[in-house]
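FYI - complex with S-adenosylmethionine, inputs then prediction.
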Amino acid sequence: MRRIIEGRSSIAVAKGVFYNPKMSKLRDVSVMFLKAVKPKNARLLDATAATGVRGIRYRVEAGIKDITMLDINASAYRNAKANAKTNRVKAKIIGKSLQEFAGSSHEAFDVIDLDPFGSPAPLVHDALKLSKDGTLLMITATDTATLCGAEGSACLRIYGSQPIHNELCHEGGVRILLNFIAREAAQFNFGVEPLLSIADMHYMRVFVALRRGASRAAESVKASGPVAYCSRCHNFTCKQGMTAQISSKCGYCGATMRLFGPMWLGNLKNSNFVSKMAGISGKYGEKTAAFLHALDAELDLPFFYSIPKITSYLRSSSVPMNIVIAKIANKSAVSRTHFEKDSIKTDAGINEVIAATKFVSKNV
Ligand SMILES: C[S@@+](CC[C@H](N)C(=O)[O-])C[C@H]1O[C@@H](n2cnc3c(N)ncnc32)[C@H](O)[C@@H]1O
Ligand SMILES: [Zn+2]
């Protein structure tokens, strides 16, 4: 049996039980999230526990005292039980599926972690059955081919949205996942407040607070809407509202834009929490800390402009990103984005972005 150390926990990985060392960064982020939010007397459900590494780390590092772990797989159940014992973590460990547990339990949890294989969509409804006002959902999706548009019809079937298959696809996927969660939550009279949303490597992860109330639920559903994208000049527009209309004629170059969505067009994060997380990220290694600081610095606006795509539209040579950013920053808010390299989020329109790129390409 393999044994690894992650955070302050020692985890044995039994044969046939899932453990991906590459996801330790994401587990670090989840520990930091719980440390930043500090849910008091929280009851936490790790619904897809595998080795139990998450539940154990949430107890040991984030101080969550009341932990329940589930896994449908009998080897995983035994493995999580043994790991909890080795790490002296008292936890309820149950060898049941989330669906079976949600069908028979009348408990409500303060924090629920969903980290399944592939799409979390089939599990969200059952997680909501175990939720209450203020519950924090931490949800991973690794079906990025679906959410990023490589398998467009699967995305329509599973998430009810048309995905974008271009440079906007990672942010688009996160917004499709949030739209899906908001619609599911609305059936239980919950609105959603995303506290942090990430796309990295082959996964997406969203951290969402549930807010009880029929009008909040309706507002959350109305926070989604269509997105239009111009594949000639790389302009985009979007508008909140389930029946929102947007023009399919590009306001910059006049080409016909393609329509995508619906996607969540509200906030992707709560800046207070993300700043707190960045503040404590130092002890999780340089790379993770840099990632958290980038998330903290990122403007919370829908979508971005890829500067290499803009220079290729302009048929100009590549330009130094920092100078384009400095030029736009004279007039407008601007930041990089973790969703795509060499890309910027800004409240400036495409006219200003193209003017700044042209200026830098001619003068630098
Ligand atoms: C990707 S692994 C979880 C990895 C773990 N959270 C970690 O960070 O190492 C997914 C786990 O979910 C379990 N699983 C799949 N469907 C489930 C269900 N419906 N209810 C509970 N567990 C389930 C699988 O047996 C598997 O152990
Ligand atoms: Zn255009």
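Residues 169-186 form the longest helix (18 residues). Residues 104 and 178 are 27 Å apart (CA to CA).
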